[in-house]
Design goal:
By secondary structure, the chain is an alpha/beta fold. It folds into three domains: about 80 residues, no CATH class; about 130 residues, HUPs (Rossmann fold, 3-Layer(aba) Sandwich), CATH 3.40.50; about 180 residues, 3-Layer(aba) Sandwich (Rossmann fold). Strand 5, helix 4 and strand 6 form a beta-alpha-beta unit. Helix 10 packs parallel to helix 11. The radius of gyration is 26 Å and the shape is flat. The chain starts with 8 loop residues before the first strand and ends in a 7-residue tail after the last helix.
């Protein structure tokens, strides 16, 4: 057989694929789901029998991925299955400290004991918890509470909160119970896949609680109150977008100053020009680099928001798809408000203090937004402001009214 002299392949995949790999390698998932989305160029190499090294967020090689064999995960069929080989220990992912391998869980359960596994993906009422305990007692089953933990505040509870609630429920029952955290997968809502994971942890029976109305169990009520603070305590990103010269930076700076006088929370201003000189130094004004610049701003804003701060951003951000990516990332951590400074191009050119528009029209500045590169109008911003003929304070007042109406400025 001829030698394969092609270069080694490495890939930093989505966290969901790393989670699948970890579950397969620990034995919690008997076989990897057949649907593993990879970039087309890597997919062709995989289909040809090559191996790809999977790297975590720090670039550590944690496993290799190959595609061989046939068959599929529970209830499905596929002609090509992913196979994983371990390299380095997995260290990322939600509720990392609470994770255990199936072997560790089995060691905590008496040999031969029947195990009722309860995968928990959301909030549980006190009545549901009691029903589960009752069922386990009557059948003589050992309870295995599984916190199916995921990242982002779009879930009913964040990973750490869900784990704490499940752990406290297991500890407070007075019955034989073991809590364990597993990652939330792309196919988490697939009951067959959840059942397969539970059985990988030694379950003889699996019960997935259905959402119900009623009073939350105290452990879940406590974590829900912690995870969903009122608007005036939540982190927030105010994202201004508009043409050069529209007034977005001026309005953003004036708003940030007013916020500093009103709130005890941290207020961070991420102005487009200043970010360009520091965070994005070295980037060009090609479309790819402009998109990367906005994603960097979004990453920093999301971290500020995650810790309860107020991020005020003022880049041009001309492309709708990237603005929506930033919105999605920030909303995993807190709230997001998009303000379109919709000052017409003619007015922006009239105000141009730096002479950029004139240079762009002469062809001296390529890919200049509004002249030789498009500005895509926001589809659904929370607020549009045309600063033509109004004062800076008038514009700030409009933003302030929106923030007050939504409860962000109710209290310091």
């Amino acid at each position: 057989m001829p030698e394969d002299n092609s270069p080694a392949l490495s890939w930093h995949p989505p966290q969901s694929l790393l989670e699948i790999a970890e579950l397969v390698l620990t034995g919690a998932l008997p076989v990897a789901p057949g649907i593993v989305e990879v970039p087309s160029d890597l997919g062709e190499r995989l289909d040809a029998g090559a191996a790809v090294t999977l790297e975590d967020a720090e670039g550590t090689p944690v496993a290799t991925l190959t595609r061989r064999g046939s068959g599929g995960p529970v209830g499905t069929e596929t002609v090509s299955l992913p196979e994983f080989t371990p390299l380095k220990p997995f260290t990322h992912g939600p509720a990392r400290a609470a994770r255990q391998t199936p072997a560790q869980v089995r060691a905590a359960v008496p040999e031969g004991a029947a195990v009722l596994a309860v995968p928990v993906t959301g909030l549980l009422t006190a009545a549901v918890v009691e029903e589960v305990r009752d069922r386990a007692r009557k059948a003589g089953h050992h309870l295995l509470w599984i916190a199916v933990a995921g990242a982002g505040r779009k879930l009913p509870l964040p990973a750490d909160g869900l784990w704490r609630a499940v752990r406290d429920v297991a500890a407070g029952s007075g019955d034989p119970a073991v809590p364990v955290a597993v990652p939330r997968l792309t196919h988490t809502d697939d009951a067959a896949l959840l059942t397969a994971v539970a059985r990988g942890y030694g379950a003889t029976e699996v019960l997935t609680p259905e959402p119900q109305e009623g009073e939350l169990h105290p452990a879940f009520a406590r974590e829900y109150a912690r995870a969903v603070p009122p608007p005036h305590r939540r982190g927030l990103t105010l994202f201004f977008t508009g043409l050069s010269g529209s007034g977005k930076s001026t309005v953003a700076k004036a708003l940030a100053e007013r916020l500093l006088d009103h709130t005890t929370r941290t207020v961070s201003l991420l102005d487009g020009d200043e970010v360009r000189r520091m965070l994005s130094a070295g980037l060009t004004f090609s479309r790819a680099d402009r998109e990367l610049n906005i994603r960097r701003i979004g990453y920093v804003a999301a971290e500020i928001t995650r810790h309860g701060g107020l991020a005020v951003c003022a880049p041009i951000a001309p492309f709708e798809a990237v603005r929506e990516q930033v919105r999605a990332e920030v909303q995993q951590a807190g709230d997001f408000v998009l303000v379109h400074i919709a000052t017409p191009l003619e007015e922006c050119e009239r105000r141009d203090r730096k002479g950029l528009y004139a240079r762009a029209r002469r062809g001296e500045i390529p890919d200049f937004t509004g002249i030789s590169s498009p500005y895509e109008l926001p589809v659904d911003p929370e607020l549009r402001i045309d600063t033509t003929g109004i004062t800076v304070q008038d514009a700030v007042d409009q933003v302030w009214s929106l923030l007050t109406e939504r409860g962000y400025l109710t209290a310091p």
